[in-house]
Structure formats: structure tokens, C-alpha cells
Amino acid sequence: MAHILIIDDDETTRYSLSRMVSRMSHIATSAATLQEGVAKASAGDIDVVFLDVRMPDGNGIEMLPTFRQAPSSPEIIIITGYGDPEGAELALKSGAWDYIEKGSSLKQMTLPLLRALQYRAERDSRAPVRSVISLKREGIVGNSAPLAVCLDLVAAAAGSDANVLITGETGTGKELFAWAIHRNSPRHRGNFVVVDCAALPETLVESLLFGHEKGAFTGADKVREGLIRQADGGTLFLDEVGELPLALQKSFLRVLQERRFRPLGSSRELESDFRLVAATNRDLDRMAAEGLFREDLLFRLKSVTIELPPLRDRPEDIKALARYHMDQFCERYGLAPKGFAPEFIDTLAAYPWPGNVRELVNALDRALLAARFDPTLFPAHLPLDIRIEVTRTALSRKPSSSEDKFKGPSRELPKLRELRETLIAQAEKQYLRDLMALCQGDMDKACRIAELSPSRLYALLQKYNIPRTG
């Protein structure tokens, strides 16, 4: 007998699904808000969650990772009255079992539930297999829901030899995740060979990858082992794989398929048993559609795809990241550990970090140099450009009725964090309205202007109930 949680603000939907579950001889529990649903998922042994998208207190898809982190790690079936291909893509990327429109037939609602329960029963009945008991995640700091999804994928990928493609903006930590896959895999005793595709000199790229014999070309005065051969028994990491020359992609595709290659000037082929992990901050699907990246190579690269969230999408990790890296800097420079004033963390949280974790680490290094022997870090120690940006953003927000209610001596002042969240939400909503009006439904253009991924932009539009046509 399974335990099914139904989260929907519509009473009729909750009643219908509860009856369906009861007829299948399972236990149904319902919740009318996300907050109530999270509490019930956290307290009970839930197998499957039916989760609505548009809820009174938020967006169901955005909360999906939180439900996946419940003690029983339930399967999530999204139900919505506003079916949308992009919403389905975002839900499945976030770990949903299925995505169903309300009004579907009883069979269409029942079958995904049966399959999810069958999957859980078969998984639980399997003999224990070797798994990553304690994930080695050196340098990967934080416990936010978006980060947890990525770490789950790392753990799953580490137990196989499947090719992995790690995507994300510059500075999100793609190489750290590649290292984590290697360290947690059976190949951890082998080499971890990094190939920076953006820095490969075009005239020497084949020699560096495949190696060469003495005299293979002018300047080849000795035999050189290529990077592919050095990765034998270990992991080959292609960083910024989107920069790999198009002419070389066909040759590398053959290596990837057969694990065999011929060094320049050699008459014989060599073998290399490597595991491939690639990373990019570019849209390889778009590049493939434009003929700038081989589609067949892309299919090979993304057996497993890990999409790293930008730092602005996991602000709850900023304090832990600041503590971790500041402690490292203090130890490196021989300084006593530093304390943080609350305003220091507030300033870090209010900045959008276009350079992500890499920019945060650089800012902390500069703050420490400014503070030097001061025991506590204040916003004044941060780089001036960051302080100016945070201040200008705060001052440029338009006054509104919700701000006015906080004014006046007869009312209690709100908590600073609550006020900031309210103002940020208002600014985001107005920005998205202006963006959609400007782009007239062109999501590609909107993503380029806002520098957001399609999934993130879609989630924000749903969160504020903003139509794509502006």
C-alpha cells in the first residue's frame, strides 16, 4: 500500500484524485498550499506527489527539488491546467516523473502513478549495488535545492562510464563538478586530464590530443604522448568543448566511438580506455542547428547532462560559500579567521554575481586584502564596484504602495530581509513585463537580453503570471 500526496488548490481536483487513489487501494493525503505540502512530505513516508503548478503561495515546478529532497525522495507527477511544452521541459529537467494536463482521462492519470509505483517497488527490491555512500565534493559548497539536484546527478554519473556534459555560465564551477565525478568513480586512481579547448592552438591541436612521432612535422624532434593517451584508465575532461575546432570534431567522434586513434606520423593505432566529461557555457544545441557543432558528436557527449545553476539562483548558499573561501584565504595568508557583519552577507546576497562563484571568490579575496588585520568584515571592505551596484539597484527601485505601508511612525518596521525580498520581487516583475513587451514573445531574444537560461526565464514568467507576449 503506497502513500500518495496530492497538492492542489482546487478542491475538486483534490477530491477526484483522492478517490482515484483510494480505489487503487492506496492512501491519499492532500494539501491546498505548497507550504502545507512540504510539511506533509517532510513528516510522512510519501511515495508519489501529484503537484499542481500554479499555487497560491508559489510555483510548483520551482518547489519540485524541495519535494524531491523529502526523506522518502518521492516521485513527482506534475498536474496543470495550463499545459506548455516549455513548462514540461522545465519540470522534467527538475526531476519530475511525468507532466499531465488536468482534464486528462482517468487512464491517463492512473498509468503514470502505476508506473512510478512499479519503478519504486523494483528499485527497492533490487540487491544492493555499489554506490557512492559519501560523495566527495571538495570545493562544492552549499545545500540549496538546485545544487542538490546537480549533486544527485554527480552521484548517479559516478557509478557508470557514461559520457557527461556539464553546462552552465562562466564561473559556476564546471571543472569542480568534473573532478567530483572522477573522484567518486571507479577510475579515481587514474589520471584526470584537462583539455582546455578554448586555448588549443589550431596548428598543434591534433598533436596535443593524439600525440606524434619524431619527425612527424617541423619541430617534432621527439616522440610525444597525446592527452588522449594520458587519460587511459582515467578521465578526459574537455573544458569549453564548444570551442573544439569543427574540423577536429569528426576525428574526435571516431576516437569517442572506438577508443582508438593514430598519432601524427605513426603507422599504427593506439588504444585509450578513458571516460569522457565535457563542459561548456555555450548553447550546443543552437550551435548544432546552425552547423557550428556536429550533431552526432553532441549526441555522444550528453549521455548525462548536468546543468549547473547560476549563483543568483541559489542565494541561500552565499553565506556558506563566503565562510568556506574566507577560511581558506585566512589560512593561506596566515591570518586569524574573520567574522562577518550581518550587513556584509546582506550585501553579498543583494548582488547578482554575473561572474558567479568565481567572481564571489575574487571579491572575497579583495575584501580580505582591504581588511587585512581587522577581525570583522563589513560592506566597506568589499570592492567599490559591487557596493555601487547594490546601492544603485536599491535606489533605482520605484516607490509603491507596498513600500508606503512600511512608512509612518505608527507602524512597525519590517525585517530588512523581508523588505529586500519584497522590493526585489517588485523589480523582477516590472523588469519581466518590460522584457516581454520589448521582445513580443521572442524567448530567444529575451534570454539573450536578460542573460537567463530558457528554463529560468520561463519559471520566472510563471512565478509572476506574466504572459510571453507582454
Overview of the molecule:
This protein is an alpha/beta fold. The chain is 47% helix and 14% strand. It contains 20 helices and 18 strands. The chain has helices at residues 11-23, 34-43, 60-68, 85-93, 106-125, 145-158, 174-183, 205-210, 227-230, 246-258, 284-289, 295-301, 318-333, 342-350, 356-371, 384-396, 401-404, 416-439, 443-450, 454-463; strands spanning 3-7, 27-31, 48-52, 54-55, 58-59, 75-80, 98-101, 164-167, 192-196, 211-212, 224-225, 235-239, 260-261, 270-271, 275-280, 304-307, 339-340, 376-377. The strands form six sheets. Strands 2-1-3-6-7 form a five-stranded parallel sheet, sandwiched between helices. The chain has a five-stranded parallel sheet with strand order 9-12-15-8-16. Helix 2 packs parallel to helix 3 (60-68) and helix 13 (318-333) packs across helix 15 (356-371). The chain starts with a strand and ends in a 7-residue tail after the last helix.
**Ends: how far apart?**
47 Å
Q: Would you count the extended β strands for me?
A: 18
Query: Which ranges are low-confidence, i.e. pLDDT below 50, for 5 or more consecutive residues?
Result: 127-133, 401-411
The number of distinct helices, counting runs of at least 4 residues, comes to: 20
Could you describe the largest sheet, including whether it forms a barrel? 5 strands, parallel
Q: Which whole number gives the mean pLDDT?
A: 86
Strand content: 5-15%
Roughly how many Å is the radius of gyration? 26 Å
Structural class: alpha/beta
The helical percent reads: 40-55%
Strand ordering within the main sheet: 2-1-3-6-7
